[in-house]
Amino acid sequence: MEEKKRVIILVAIALILAATAIALNVMDSDEVPTSAPTTQETSDGGQVGVGIEPAPVEDKLTEETPQQ
Amino acid sequence: MKSTESITYISIAVIVVSLFFIGTQLTGYATTGIVNVTIDQSIVLNFSTSLLNFGNGTVTSNPATVYSNGTTIDGTWDPVNGELVLENVGNVDANIDLNINKTPAVFIGGTGSDVQISISDNEANSCDDESAAWTSITTSTQTVCGNLSFQPTNNSINIDFGLIIPTDASGARTVGVIATGSVAA
Fold first, then answer.
1. Cα–Cα distance between B164 and B115 in angstroms, integer?
2. Contacts of residue A28 in chain B, CB cutoff 8 Å?
3. Residues with Cβ < 8 Å from A10, sequence gap 6 or more?
């Protein structure tokens, strides 16, 4: 019975220490990401506008032959 | 009885290994700590001046040419002194590509129309290899600026436009300008 108690205590200590060791290893992770993601963004865009009015039509016939 | 012995040995082994790992973690007097942080690279482009309007005019001799630097040739358009201004407000230098969303024939119309651009620094040393020479632009992307800086004091470029307008074009015309950035090497 005494021996069983000793084994249980030993197992408990082993489990606690194992958990502590794992936790410390995880917390102390110093892995630095080295990948450089290449992002690409498109802006909302600009806008260029122009108004093109048709040239006035000249009435050359009237200019050349004035009305009587 | 044998299983109890096995458990005992395994436990002792676990304790020894755990102590080894804990020991290597805790041994010594720590004077510094390490904080790791990763900041993603991000390109954000913004047209701080996004509209360029040449106004109304007429072609007086085919073709008319209007530039946003104030020059009008063979047309009645009032001089326009303006340009689009593009900023890199991200956190990494970027190569900038430009294109328009309509071909010159669709945007301006007529026969022999063309759209040209000229690139210059809006803030000194914003761009490494911009060209002020007038260059035609279409719906295909073309690189206009290498290493546009993200530093707030030198992160913007001017995009001037020139329009070649033939006599057989007419109407109110607009075109979209699209800027695309990629991380500069």
1. 6
2. 25
3. B7, B8, B11, B12, B15
Provide the shortest C-alpha distance from residue B13 to chain A (in Å): 8
B89 exposure class (CB count in 10 Å sphere: 0-12, 13-18, 19+): middle
State the Cα–Cα distance between residues B160 and B83, nearest whole angstrom: 5
The tens digit of pLDDT for each residue in B25-45 reads 655 565 676 777 777 888 889
Q: Is the dihedral of CA B89, B90, B96, B97 positive or negative?
A: negative
Q: Mean pLDDT across the stretch B152-176? A: 96
A23 touches chain B (CB under 8 A): no
Is residue A43 within 8 angstroms of chain B, CB to CB? yes
Q: CA-nearest residue of chain B to A7?
A: B8
B159 or A66: which carries more pLDDT confidence? B159
Q: Could you read off the pLDDT of A28-67 as tens digits, one per residue? A: 655 554 455 455 555 568 999 999 998 777 655 555 655 5
Q: In whole angstroms, how far apart are CA B175 and each of B51, B100, B102, B167?
A: 10, 7, 6, 19
Give the separation between CA B165 and CA A52, rounded to whole angstroms.
8
Using CA of residue B13, residue B14, residue B16, residue B20, what is the dihedral sign?
positive
Q: What is the ipTM of this complex?
A: 0.78
Q: Letter for the amino acid at B175?
A: V
pLDDT at residue B36 in the model: 75
**Among A30, A41, A50, whose Cβ lies nearest the Cβ of B163?**
A50
Q: Which of B159, B127, B9 is nearest to A14 (CA)?
A: B9
Q: Distance (Å, rounded) from C-alpha B159 to C-alpha B144? A: 9
